Every structure is written in structure tokens, then in C-alpha cells.
Amino acid sequence: MSTERIWSYPPGSGHQEGRTLTGFTVEATDGVVGHVDRQADDAPLRHLIVDTGAWVFGRSLLIPAGVVTGVDMTTRVITVGCTRAQAKAAPRFETDRETLDPEYLSAVGAYYAALPHGSGASG
Fold first, then answer.
1. Do 33 and 61 touch, CB atoms closer than 8 A?
2. In a 3-state reduction of DSSP, which class is residue 6?
3. Is the pTM of this model over 0.85?
4. Residue 27 pairs with which residues in a beta bridge?
């Protein structure tokens, strides 16, 4: 996937413009990653900030919109096309300032774009 496309919701993902995803459960191909703490839909680099809770010691993750494979508005579940380990191994998100840091966002985009398409999709 190109680094430009990694920042946009894929067609057919179920994402609806203007719908708030805060509080939705985020599921990787092998289990729950966390819950959406906030989303950035107004920026050209659309993404979700996911609170992982105790799973990654209270850490949050920045997940680009292009990683989203499905949004179910009824069950309030977002599926992403990576494993929990791949999400955890992404460049570390520490402060909201990073959402404005082109170098950090470039690293995150390149990381997720380089993952095999449909990583771990068997589970």
C-alpha cells in the first residue's frame, strides 16, 4: 500500500463521513487492540488514536485510517489489517504533538504501508 493511501479509509471499509468512532473497539486480525480514544478526520493524514489499556501498559497507538478494513456501526467494532504484535511494534506514540510532526507521521505511514497486505488475515 502506498504511504499516501495509508492515511485514507479504504473504499468499502464501512467508514461513514462525519460519524464519530470514539469508544469503538479496535480488533486486529488476532484479537482486540483497544478502544478509539479520538480520531483525526479533518486532517489530510486521517488516523485513530487507540487506547490499549493494560495490554501495552496503558500506551496509546496511532493507527492510520488506511489500516482499517472494516467499521461496523451496529456492534461499534473497527477491524484493522494487522496483528496485535504489528500494531505494538509501530513507531511509539507518546504525545499529541506527534500528530503534527511530519517526520513521525512519515515513519508511521511507512511502517504500516510496508506491512504485508492482509497481515495475519487468517484469524
1. yes
2. helix
3. yes
4. 32, 79
Which of 115, 110, 123, 47 is CA-nearest to residue 86?
A: 115
Enumerate the β-bridge partners of residue 31.
28
Alpha carbon 4 to chain centroid distance? Answer: 15
Across the range 13-41, mean pLDDT stands at: 95
Angstrom distances, CA of residue 11 to CA of 5, 14, 67 = 11, 8, 12
DSSP assignment of 56-84: GTT-EEEEEGGGEEEEETTTTEEEESS-H
Per the prediction, the chain carries an average pLDDT of 90
Q: What stretches of 1-123 show up as alpha helix (H) in DSSP?
A: 84-88, 102-114
Write the DSSP symbol of residue 88: H
Q: In angstroms, rounded to a whole number, what is the distance separating the alpha carbons of residues 40 and 42?
A: 6
Residue-wise pLDDT for 41-91, tens only, equals 877 899 999 999 876 667 899 999 999 999 999 999 999 999 999 999 999
